[in-house]
């Protein structure tokens, strides 16, 4: 299998590091976030990885080349002209990923989610997309029914709800009938995803999930209790170093 690591973002929450460097090269116990995720994928037999680049792209490419991809075959998806967010970035990398199911992960996430278990769940469910979710606290959550099928999204800080086309849910019914779960950014896609994405240009995977959830199975794989951290801010590094020696 192949995987894609999203590493093109501006990392605005990670300043001042990202004033001079890409976030994916921030260090945790002597290894960059990018290296750690490449090695994480290797531990599940994934040795062909696409990395998208934009912010300080030259530094990322140099690190990959200087370290021989840390033992993996690393392909670059170049977004130096315009950062495309996760959905647009995935679509741009389509030719590098076509042909079979594949994983994606955000570069600034560290996790011990079992990719073999995620893949097995995805195949048993016959899903188009399956992604890791947990019970951790978050202001932005996906909403799932009792079968862990995606039914919506909510921003708790603004009370904004979004639902797939044709949904039977409203904000009022969602509060009592759906379960909010935090997104882990570790995803497995079936290969037909590229023929179903309707958006163009710059857009989020959230848009893709919600657009397709009414007509296709998009599933949440609950891995609550696993080690997990979003290394989103500089102060997260110290916690990450405790969790991931």
CA(first)-CA(last) distance: 27 Å
Q: What gyration radius follows from the Cα positions, in whole Å?
A: 17 Å
Beta strand %? 25-35%
Give the integer mean of the pLDDT values.
97
Structural class: alpha/beta
At the first level of CATH, the class of the largest domain is: Alpha Beta
CATH superfamily of the largest domain: Spore Coat Polysaccharide Biosynthesis Protein SpsA, Chain A
Named at the architecture level, the CATH assignment of the largest domain is Alpha-Beta Complex
Question: Residue ranges: pLDDT <50 for 5 or more in a row?
Answer: none
CATH topology of the largest domain: Spore Coat Polysaccharide Biosynthesis Protein SpsA, Chain A
DSSP E strands, number: 14
- The ordered H/E elements are EEEHEHEHHEEHEEEEHEHHEEH
Tell me about the largest β-sheet.
10 strands, mixed
Total number of helices: 9
Number of domains: 2
What global shape is seen?
globular
The helicity comes to 25-40%
Please name the defining characteristics of this protein.
Spore Coat Polysaccharide Biosynthesis Protein SpsA, Chain A, ten-stranded mixed sheet, 28% strand, 245 residues, alpha/beta
Write up this protein.
- The chain has 245 residues and is an alpha/beta fold.
- It has two domains: 1-112, Spore Coat Polysaccharide Biosynthesis Protein SpsA, Chain A, CATH 3.90.550; 113-226, Spore Coat Polysaccharide Biosynthesis Protein SpsA, Chain A (Alpha-Beta Complex).
- The chain has nine helices and 14 strands.
- The protein has helices at residues 33-42, 57-66, 85-92, 94-97, 115-125, 171-177, 193-196, 205-212, 236-243, and strands at residues 2-6, 27-28, 31-32, 48-53, 73-78, 102-106, 109-111, 129-134, 140-144, 150-155, 160-162, 179-189, 218-222, 228-230.
- Strands 1, 4, 5, 6, 8, 9, 10, 11, 12 and 13 form a ten-stranded mixed β-sheet that branches.
- Helix 3 (85-92) crosses helix 8.
- The chain is globular, with a radius of gyration of 17 Å.
- The protein starts with a strand and ends with a helix.
- The mean pLDDT is 97.
């Amino acid at each position: 299998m192949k995987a894609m690591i999203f590493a093109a973002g501006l990392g605005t929450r990670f300043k001042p590091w990202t004033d001079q460097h890409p976030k994916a090269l921030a260090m945790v116990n002597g290894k960059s976030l990018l290296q750690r995720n490449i090695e994480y994928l290797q531990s599940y037999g994934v040795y062909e990885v696409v990395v998208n680049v934009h912010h300080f792209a030259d530094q990322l490419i140099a690190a990959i080349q200087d370290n021989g991809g840390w033992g993996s075959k690393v392909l670059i998806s170049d977004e130096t002209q315009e950062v495309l967010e996760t959905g647009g970035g995935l679509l741009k990398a389509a030719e590098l990923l076509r042909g079979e199911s594949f994983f994606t992960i955000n570069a600034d996430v560290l996790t011990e989610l079992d990719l073999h278990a995620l893949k097995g769940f995805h195949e048993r469910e016959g899903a188009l997309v399956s992604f890791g979710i947990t019970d951790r606290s978050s202001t932005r959550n996906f909403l799932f029914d009792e079968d862990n099928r995606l039914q919506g999204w909510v921003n708790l800080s603004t009370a904004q709800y979004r639902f797939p086309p044709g949904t039977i849910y409203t904000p009022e019914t969602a509060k009592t009938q759906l379960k909010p779960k935090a997104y882990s950014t570790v995803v497995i896609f079936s290969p037909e995803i590229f023929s179903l994405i309707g958006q163009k240009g710059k857009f989020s995977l959230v848009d893709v999930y919600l657009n397709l959830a009414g007509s296709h199975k998009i599933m949440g794989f609950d891995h609550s209790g696993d080690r997990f951290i979003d290394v989103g801010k500089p102060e997260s590094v110290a916690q990450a170093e405790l969790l991931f020696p």
